[in-house]
């Protein structure tokens, strides 16, 4: 039997760490667990399993996955060529009309390219309402003129359909078309130097095949930018040049009258 002195000494000593199967079992909250069991307060099996889940696993359901598919974008087909145009571009501009550029060669109407006209609809809607007010009964010359004269973002995407087209032919076509449009807007004055700036810097070595894309954009501040297969070939700041280019599609003698009419109907829908 232990003496009184021995009992007092035992009470004053700190708890002793025990080992079970070679593993130290520390006391929890100052107490030892009996029979070498788990320390009091140790996480339960269910809690332990939860803590062992990979980090970030719970948030995967909430955060969008990187592989998540992008928003599906519809297309519109130009009926005379079968060329498809997305109804919305990555920058938010929307398709208002599609059409076809034909050229008379050797007495035949040759299909040169299909085109799609894109605009910033929200800004264009505000502009039309401020300039015209109430929507007219049908597309009006005043309505088209607002678009031609403005400096709002607009893009015309050209998709080549004539397989025998060369870069030199494209440049000549642009020079002629823009030159004629500039003359109409200036009362008959030519400005060949200005017209040549759009495609003049494009190399004749660029290979054009059916399906090749040329994009000509009117940027805010009256800047006309030309891309040939995603490569910028010119960027010209000129109000007259911007107006003349859009005039070729929406003016009195447009490349495609049906495309102009559809563009006008799309404008009416913005009111």
TrEMBL record:
<dbReference type="InterPro" id="IPR016087">
    <property type="entry name" value="Chalcone_isomerase"/>
</dbReference>
<dbReference type="Pfam" id="PF16036">
    <property type="entry name" value="Chalcone_3"/>
</dbReference>
<feature type="domain" description="Chalcone isomerase">
    <location>
        <begin position="142"/>
        <end position="262"/>
    </location>
</feature>
<protein>
    <recommendedName>
        <fullName>Chalcone isomerase domain-containing protein</fullName>
    </recommendedName>
</protein>
<dbReference type="InterPro" id="IPR044228">
    <property type="entry name" value="FAP1"/>
</dbReference>
<comment type="similarity">
    <text>Belongs to the chalcone isomerase family.</text>
</comment>
<dbReference type="GO" id="GO:0016872">
    <property type="term" value="F:intramolecular lyase activity"/>
</dbReference>
<dbReference type="GO" id="GO:0006631">
    <property type="term" value="P:fatty acid metabolic process"/>
</dbReference>
<feature type="compositionally biased region" description="Basic and acidic residues">
    <location>
        <begin position="44"/>
        <end position="74"/>
    </location>
</feature>
<dbReference type="GO" id="GO:0005504">
    <property type="term" value="F:fatty acid binding"/>
</dbReference>
<feature type="region of interest" description="Disordered">
    <location>
        <begin position="1"/>
        <end position="74"/>
    </location>
</feature>
<dbReference type="InterPro" id="IPR016089">
    <property type="entry name" value="Chalcone_isomerase_bundle_sf"/>
</dbReference>
<dbReference type="GO" id="GO:0009570">
    <property type="term" value="C:chloroplast stroma"/>
</dbReference>
<dbReference type="InterPro" id="IPR036298">
    <property type="entry name" value="Chalcone_isomerase_sf"/>
</dbReference>
<dbReference type="GO" id="GO:0009813">
    <property type="term" value="P:flavonoid biosynthetic process"/>
</dbReference>
<dbReference type="InterPro" id="IPR016088">
    <property type="entry name" value="Chalcone_isomerase_3-sand"/>
</dbReference>
């Amino acid at each position: 039997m232990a003496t009184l002195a021995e009992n007092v000494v035992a009470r004053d000593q700190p708890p002793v760490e025990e080992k079970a199967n070679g593993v130290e079992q520390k006391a929890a909250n100052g107490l030892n667990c009996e029979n070498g069991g788990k320390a009091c307060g140790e996480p339960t099996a269910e809690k332990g399993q939860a803590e062992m889940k990979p980090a970030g696993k719970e948030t995967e359901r909430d955060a969008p996955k990187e592989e998540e598919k992008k928003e599906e974008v519809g297309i519109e087909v130009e009926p005379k060529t079968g060329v498809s145009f997305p109804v919305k571009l990555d920058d938010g501009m929307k398709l208002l009309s599609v059409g076809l550029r034909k050229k008379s060669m050797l007495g035949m109407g040759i299909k040169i390219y299909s085109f799609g006209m894109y605009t910033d609809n929200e800004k264009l809607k505000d502009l039309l309402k401020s300039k015209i007010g109430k929507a007219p009964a049908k597309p009006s010359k005043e309505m088209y003129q607002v678009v031609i004269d403005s400096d709002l973002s607009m893009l015309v995407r050209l998709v080549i359909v004539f397989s025998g087209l060369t870069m030199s032919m494209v440049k000549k076509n642009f020079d002629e078309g823009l030159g004629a449009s500039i003359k109409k807007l200036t009362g008959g004055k030519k400005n060949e130097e200005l017209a040549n700036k759009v495609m003049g810097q494009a190399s004749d070595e660029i290979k054009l095949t059916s399906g090749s894309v040329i994009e000509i954009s009117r940027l805010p501040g009256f800047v006309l930018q030309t891309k040939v297969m995603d490569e910028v070939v010119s960027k010209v700041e000129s109000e007259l040049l911007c107006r003349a280019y859009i005039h070729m599609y929406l003016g009195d003698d447009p490349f495609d009258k049906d495309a102009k009419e559809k563009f006008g109907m799309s404008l009416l829908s913005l009111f």
